[in-house]
Specification:
With about 325 residues, the protein is α/β, with parallel strands linked by helices. It has 13 helices and eight strands. The chain has an eight-stranded mixed beta sheet with strand order 3-2-1-4-5-6-7-8, with helices on both faces. α1 crosses α2 and α10 crosses α11. The two termini are about 35 Å apart. Its EC number is 1.1.1.45. Its main location: cytoplasm. This is L-gulonate 3-dehydrogenase. It is found in: Cytoplasm.
Length: about 325
């Protein structure tokens, strides 16, 4: 059984992560790119990442790093790349016309048994897959950056996507150790980004209005809400913080509505506030490539250790 990973010259972290995840599940992966050097670079980076993961006992799947690396090959001919594929994961930049061009090309060479999936984080399936012959086989599978350490995948169907396409993709994501969620109909931002933007919006307003400093704002999440939400979501939190959901809404419903009515308009994310936040962030992490890369590496190590802890927790 083979699995085709579609990535273009700017695939970067997302494309490499997908390849590693699919290989961890025992699938053969073809990494496609129009430039051979991009394929070479991707394979070298994947090898380095897998070896480091194996050394730290964090490699996913039951196969060794060498066994997984053996499953990943590069291909610069799209016709050869899709041969034998059961799943195609597109990872080109967030450019609607570019993605539509890619899917139109794939639509003309695949059969009726291949899932066409996009990694887009914001483009709607109705935009991406409009007019395709194989639209019933099309779906968005939006990962969270970095995908290897954060397992959530949002599955967003086109209005004409066949239920079997959703089911197949859901099963595949579970097979490679991800945590797929079904978004029942498309909506701007999907689910994760809508929640994320709501938090960012209120965080920005609190800093802009002088309620809290940027650094303390981040502490509220990392040392407060974030600890709780690493294991349970906001709805279960409500359920547990009273004698069930009905009790919580009865007890706190009016207070929540009162606070929510005080929320202001959507921030502009510009001007004096962005300068203030930028300066505060740079005190902690200077915005040069070296410091940012080091902090991302630290973040990924933290996520890796958290993922390991979560995997050891008894399932409820």
């Amino acid at each position: 059984m083979s699995l085709f990973q579609f990535a273009k010259s700017h695939s970067g972290l997302i494309g490499r992560s997908w390849a590693m995840l699919f290989a961890s599940g025992g699938f053969r992966v073809k990494l496609f790119d129009i430039e051979q050097q991009q394929i070479t670079n991707a394979l070298e980076n994947i090898r380095k990442d897998m070896k480091l993961l194996e050394q730290s006992s964090s490699l996913k799947g039951s196969l060794s790093a060498e066994q997984q690396l053996f499953l990943i090959t590069g291909c610069s001919n799209i016709q050869e790349a899709v041969e034998g594929a059961i799943h195609i994961q597109e990872c080109v930049p967030e450019d609607l016309e570019l993605k539509k061009k890619v899917f139109a090309q794939l639509d003309g060479i695949i059969g009726d048994d291949v899932v066409l999936s996009s990694s887009t984080s914001c483009l709607l399936p109705s935009q991406l897959f409009a007019g395709l012959v194989h639209v019933k086989q099309c779906i968005v599978a939006h990962p969270v950056n970095p995908p290897y350490y954060v397992p959530l995948v949002e599955l967003v169907p086109h209005p004409e996507t066949a239920p079997v396409t959703v089911d197949r993709t859901h099963a595949l994501m579970q097979k490679i150790g991800q945590s797929p969620v079904r978004v029942l109909r498309e909506v701007d931002g999907f689910v994760l980004n809508r929640l994320q933007y709501a938090v960012i919006s209120e965080a920005w307003r609190l800093v802009q209005e002088g309620i809290v400093s940027p650094s303390d704002l981040d502490l509220v999440m990392s040392h407060g809400l974030g600890l709780r939400y690493a294991f349970i979501g906001p709805l279960e939190t409500m359920h547990l913080n009273a004698e069930g959901m009905l009790s919580y809404c009865d007890r706190y419903g009016e207070s929540m509505k009162h606070v929510l009515k005080t929320f202001g308009p959507i921030p502009e994310f510009s001007g004096a506030t962005v300068e203030k936040v930028h300066q505060a962030m740079c005190v902690k992490v200077p915005d040069d490539p070296e410091h940012l890369a080091a902090r991302r590496q630290w973040r990924d190590q933290c996520l890796m250790r958290l993922a390991k802890l979560k995997s050891q927790m008894p399932s409820q």
